[in-house]
Amino acid sequence: MSSKKAMRQAQKQAYAKHRSNITNSRFELKKNDFNKTKDRKKKKKD
């Protein structure tokens, strides 16, 4: 594999990892927010 091709592949992998980190962190935030709102509703009922 030429160094140019290897460099391009490494950049693609880095970008894919970056994108998945963004989506995963966004999903984690939503999940945490959902749990917080769930807890608030439980407290109001008590």
3D architecture notes:
- The protein is mostly helical.
- It has a domain of 26 residues.
- Helices cover 93% and strands 0% of the residues.
- The chain is built from one helix and no strands.
- The longest helix has 43 residues.
Enumerate how many helices there are, as a single number: 1
| Termini Cα gap | 65 Å
Number of strands: 0
Q: Give start-end ranges of low-pLDDT stretches.
A: none
- Based on Cα principal axes, name the global outline: rod-shaped
Q: Radius of gyration, Cα only, in angstroms?
A: 20 Å
Average pLDDT figure: 78
Helix content: over 70%
Report the structural category: mainly alpha
**Percent of sequence in beta strands:** under 5%
Write the layout of secondary structure elements.
Elements: H1 3-45
What's this entry about, in short?
This protein has 46 residues and is mainly alpha-helical. The protein is built from 1 helix and no strands. The radius of gyration is 20 Å and the shape is rod-shaped.
